[in-house]
Amino acid sequence: MAEDPTTPTTTSRPAGTAEATAPDGELRRVISASIVGTALEWYDYFIYGTAVALVFNDHFFVQDDATTGALIGFATFGVGFLFRPLGGFLFGSIGDRLGRRVTLVMTTLIMGLSTGIIGLLPTYDSIGIAAPALLVLMRICQGLGAGAEFGGASTLLSEHAPRERRGYYASFAQMGVQIGLVLGTVAFLFVELLPDRQMETWGWRIPFLFSFVLIAVSLYVRLRVAESPVFERMRRQEKVVRVPARETLTRYPRNFLVGIGAHVCDTSLVYICATFSVSYVTDELDLEKWVALTGVIGFGLVVIALQPVYGALSDRVGRRPLNLFSVVFTGLFAYPLFLLMDTGVPVLIWVALIVMTGLGLAPMIAVQPAFYAELFGARVRYTGFAASRETGAAIGGFSPFIATWLLDVGDGSPWLIALYLALTAAVSLVAFLYSRETRGVDMADAELPAIGGR
Questions:
Q1: What is the pLDDT of residues 36-87, one digit of tens each?
Q2: For residues 48 and 441, which has the higher predicted lDDT (pLDDT)?
Q3: What are the angstrom distances between the C-alpha of 103 and each of 88, 98, 110, 382?
Q4: Is the per-residue pLDDT at 19 higher than 70?
Q5: How many of the other CB atoms lie within 10 Å of CB of 380?
Q6: Are 378 and 230 within 8 A, CB to CB?
Q7: Contact status, residue 243 vs residue 335, Cβ threshold 8 Å
Q8: Number of structural domains, the chain?
Q9: pTM of the entire structure?
Q10: pLDDT recorded at residue 221
Q11: What is the pLDDT of residues 173-190, one digit of tens each?
Q12: Could you tell me if residue 48 is inside a domain?
């Protein structure tokens, strides 16, 4: 009897396939490198958003009106997302032509250096308009690097992992992202303990300058990892494509659209919970900064713990059911999230953030590494993964800016923000309904069936 391609097995593979997987020792090194490298790079990316909410308005986006300053700050936060699709196409193509590993080393250097330089920038009081201009330039560099970081780490993990446990092992890439979120928030929580004068003059720079140290750590772990066995096999068989971006768009146009829509909801949700909530709790609810930062750390730790759980569950029930559940829950819980936060009770704020991210965000992002890797054949996997996902990120990445504007339009009421979040969930719901179950595909296949194709 032929094997069902959507049902994983530990005993056999369909005839004619030869999926390359790594030995156990190498797989452990890939997992470790993925967690450490991704955590350190996304630490770089997340601390910008926290800094916008806490300090950049006073040093780079100086405005008489606090709301205007916040809008400008969150707009520059969103600029990084506009360049993430470009980074996905550019570095994704390099990853499909030269290899996954070498491309990840490039993104490590770009992310680390641009973040560290932010810690050295003079402020608006020193050089005027040049200060925010230089800050935006560094944010653009962050966006280019981030555009290929997650796709590369997830592709490398998925192509090393055994088919029957791919969802579980690939979820560790997303675990690294959330560790980066927690590390960045913890860094600012400690910096906030400094006296106000020290915090305002030099303390805020510490989390950014620390990135120089993290570059060395990330490079060390990534240079010890072997190249993907799937890519090495393609290179030996001379199946490496010369123009991955063109083949991605011509062979997998519907897969690419699904990839875009699939990332809109979780991008909007995570930055509303991790970035906008800090501004909302401190400015609108007039609570201490530690209340918001502790809430972000709390939900981050919960999401980290749940990643391998949901990843393993997706190997049993499939990627599609978990994706559908998470976006439906997000849409339904959008308004209760703000009802609980508006109580002003710290414990209820933390509960709201943990419930929303534990049941809404965590399943969706745990499935993501395997889901995207399984959308595209090996010849264009890195490009298709990174470019489609980061195009979705560009759409959802302005969520803190949009939420701040909607809060102003609604005279301080968050119901419009809840509606916006529900709409992003609806966009991703359509994408997931249009997708098909991908669990069990062979990562070694140079080409995979396109959605809607024959």
A1: 878 877 787 778 877 877 777 777 876 656 666 667 777 777 788 889 999 9
A2: 441
A3: 11, 8, 11, 10
A4: no
A5: 30
A6: yes
A7: no
A8: 1
A9: 0.85
A10: 85
A11: 999 888 988 888 888 888
A12: yes
In CATH, what number is assigned to the domain containing residue 163?
1.20.1250.20
Both tokens assigned to 372: 């995207």
Q: Please say if the pLDDT value at position 334 is more than 60.
A: yes
Virtual CA dihedral for 181, 185, 188, 189, nearest 10 degrees? -160
CA distances 250 to 95, 243, 253, 255, 412, Å, are 19, 11, 6, 11, 46
Q: Which two tokens stand for residue 122?
A: 């003079």
Summarize pLDDT for 221-254 with one digit per residue, the tens: 888 888 888 998 888 887 888 899 999 999 999 9
Its domain, for residue 83, covers 24-229+239-434
Length of the chain: 454
Q: Where are the beta strands (DSSP E) in 82-212?
A: none
Tokens (6 digits) for 436: 């098909």
Cα–Cα distance for residue pair 37/268, rounded to 1 Å: 24
Is 148 within 8 Å of 103 (Cβ atoms)? yes
Q: Give the start-end residues of each E strand in 162-317.
A: none
Using only the alpha carbons of the chain, give its radius of gyration.
Answer: 21
In a domain, 352, yes or no: yes
Percent of all residues in the chain with a pLDDT value above 90, rounded to a whole number: 46
Whether residue 265 lies inside any domain: the answer is yes
Q: Report residue 307 CA to chain centroid gap.
A: 13
Please count the other Cβ atoms lying within 10 Å of the Cβ belonging to residue 346: 16
In a domain, 95, yes or no: yes
Question: What is the rounded CA–CA span in Å between residue 446 and residue 233?
Answer: 10
Q: Which residues contact 210 (CB under 8 A, 6 or more apart)?
A: 187
